[in-house]
Amino acid sequence: MKTFLKIAGVIFLISFVVIPIVKNMLEKSINKTLEESGYLYKSEVKDAVKIMSNQLPIKIDDNTTAKSMKYDEDKNLLYYNYEITGVSKMEMENILPEIKNEQLQNIKSSANKEDFVKAKVTFKYVYTDANGEEMGSFLIYPNEYLYIHLCNY
């Protein structure tokens, strides 16, 4: 009888104490992993892109028009397409690093980009002329914006 009570006690302990604790630890670990990977925010990114792309095209300045944007969920890549006028391809190549820096600062400081930052998307900016011919492009990776952005909170 004592052996039966010991076994029953162990089964009770495992069933009602150990298993819930382990389950809770696993759930927290999985949620943390999903959050760190950005997976939990991908639906917010898709929704934001859908809303923002419905507002395009938008004239940014005398030479720049935001034409389109799309999100590739598999690659976690956000594409922006801009049309540039009044600038030669050579001039564009010269100012592209400055434009990249401006876009990087925008990502770091804009509340509109918060879901994109949480999802750790890679941003791809493509600049074309009025005929659709590419004049330049660049990528901004999460490691370029994430650490500094998170430190601001």
What's the number of extended β-strand segments? 5
Q: What topology, given as strand order, has the largest sheet? A: 1-2-3-4-5
Radius of gyration: 24 Å
Note the beta-strand portion.
15-25%
User: What structural class results from the helix and strand content?
Assistant: alpha+beta
The main β sheet shows up as: 5 strands, mixed
Proportion of residues in helical segments: 40-55%
* Model regions low in confidence, pLDDT < 50 over at least 5 residues: none
N- and C-termini, Cα separation: 61 Å
Overall pLDDT, averaged?
82
Order of helices and strands: HHEEEHHEEH
Q: Counting H and I runs of at least 4 residues, what is the number of helices? A: 5
Apparent shape: elongated
Short key terms for the protein model shown above:
153 residues, 5-stranded mixed β-sheet, alpha+beta
Give a verbal description of the structure.
With 153 residues, the chain is α+β, with helices and mostly antiparallel strands. 55% of the residues lie in helices and 22% in strands. The chain contains five helices and five strands; from the N terminus they run H-H-E-E-E-H-H-E-E-H. The chain has helices at 2-37, 42-53, 89-109, 114-118, 142-151, and strands at 58-59, 64-72, 77-84, 122-128, 134-140. The protein has a five-stranded mixed beta sheet. Strand 2 (64-72) and strand 3 form a beta hairpin. Helix 3 packs parallel to helix 5 (142-151). It starts with a helix and ends with a helix. The model has no long low-confidence stretch (mean pLDDT 82).
